[in-house]
Amino acid sequence: MIRKIKRTRFVVYLSIITLAVVLSVTFFIHTQCLRPSISYYRILEEHIEMERATAEDPRKYILLYTHFFGNSNWYLQAETVGPDYFRSIQCPVTDCVLTNNRELLGGITEYDAVLFHIAEAWTYALFEKVPKVRSPRQIYIAANMESPAHTKHLLQGDHDFFNWTMTYRLDSDIIWNYNNFVELESGRLIAPNESPLWRSNWHTYTNATLLELATRKSKMGVQFVSHCGAFSRRDELVQQIQQLMEVDVYGKCGTMECPRGSPRCSQMLTDDYRFYFAFENSLCQDYITEKMYNSMESYIIPVVFGGADYAKFAPPRSYIDVQQFGTVPELVAYLEWLAENPSEYIKYFWWKEHYRITGDQPFCQLCRKLHDVGARERIQYYKDIKRWWFDSACQREAKIRF
To answer: Are 210 and 299 in contact (CB under 8 A)?
Structure first.
């Protein structure tokens, strides 16, 4: 009987101990595992509520702080443009405001981004060169469509000043290219791109209408240029080409004239001339101006001369790159061969059935990037913007010998 009582007590004690252990483990799990999870959820909920509370004005404000070649509003349609403007240029994100009005908000530090044009010197007497105060959350942006050979603002004093760049270079934070290539079938932007996926079915291309057009052309080369004595020595190159074939030069650097914007100037490219010399003023990385793109609107082959890898910007067999030839006689021999073989000449227009040229919209990219929390909240600045812009950016000597 006593042994039975002891056994019963032992069972009771064991049950109590077991229950205590279970309760302790449960308490530990609840306090150390479940409750923090619940707290974390609450943190997320509070953040979402805060976002909702501060989302009354989701727009990002961009201040055009300097002039753009003397124009204070960068040739926009008004001093201040908002979401309607961004919708009109079909931006994917439109909650942005562009302005050159420094009084639009409470102060300079209220703007989300401040844009500086670095192609020209900041010498406006009415404005200080840089803002006197700056908020850590602001994005300062260096904008430039000109090459380093034509950058007049002195960048050596801008250490740790700019967060983003907006230039024609493909390694810019926002690419400000002259034009783009879009695929007709899909509407996708193909170029500029470091590795564009081009079609390549030009080998078998033929077109009876274009063949007749090519046969009727009677002149060889044409160039429009008004900036003489360029850093690239393009004037000297054209002069050497002229010793071997006909090249008509229009503008201040030539002997012929055609009024800018005249329909005849555009039409003669298709009707009369075979080759358009789109030579850049400097041989710099990714630097391709409107010359090539403008000529491609007509049925004339652009002959390009620059420091860019043109395959990143235009379809294959849509241009002739001077830098792919060793000498001027080699280049001229190929151009003459194309002139004598119209069926080969017209293959340079195969791309028109697959792609179209569109204007670039850098402010679309800027607006979208400002709304991208990953890009906006990342700490970034250019330690030495001058080195980034100038080092190994341009060539003094061309690959072709002349």
So the answer is: yes
φ, ψ (nearest 5 deg) of residue 121: -70, 145
Q: Per residue in 44-63, pLDDT tens?
A: 666 566 656 555 668 999 99
268-286 pLDDT, tens per residue? 999 999 999 999 999 999 9
Rounded to whole angstroms, the Cα distance separating 223 from 332 reads 15
Neighbours of 114 (CB within 10 A): 24
Cα–Cα–Cα angle for 252, 169, 302, rounded to 5 degrees: 45
36, two tokens: 């923090």
Question: SS3 helix, strand, coil % of the chain, rounded to 5?
Answer: 40, 20, 45
**Does residue 192 have a cis peptide bond before it, meaning omega lies within 30 degrees of 0?**
yes
With a CB cutoff of 8 Å and minimum separation 6, the contacts of 289 are: 178, 280, 281
For the segment 313-332, what is each residue's pLDDT rounded down to a tens digit?
Answer: 999 999 999 999 999 999 99
Q: Which of 384, 367, 315 is closest to 166 using CA atoms?
A: 367
CB atoms within 10 A of CB 324: 13
pLDDT of residue 125: 47
Structure tokens, 91? 């931006």
**pLDDT surpassing 70 at residue 95:** yes
Question: Taking the domain 179-359, which CATH number applies?
Answer: 3.40.50.11660
Q: What are the φ and ψ backbone dihedral angles of 396, each rounded to 5 degrees? A: -90, -40
Round to whole Å and give the CA distance between 314 and 289.
12
Query: How would you label 260-285 residue by residue, b for 16+ Cβ within 10 Å and e otherwise?
Result: eeeeeeeebbebebbbbbbbbbbbbb
Our separate counts of H helices and E strands in the chain read: 12, 17
> What pLDDT does 90 receive?
93
User: What is residue 371's three-state secondary structure?
Assistant: helix
Residues in the chain: 402
Kindly report the pTM of this predicted structure. 0.84
Task: Locate the domains of the chain by residue range.
Answer: 60-176+364-395, 179-359
- 208-216 and 263-271 helices, crossing angle to 10°: 100
Compare 150 and 50 and report the one with higher pLDDT.
150
Q: Rounded to whole angstroms, how far apart are CA atoms 294 and 304?
A: 12
Looking at residue 128, its pLDDT comes to: 62
Tokens of 276: 């358009």
CA-wise closest residue to 387 among 142, 195, 178, 136: 142
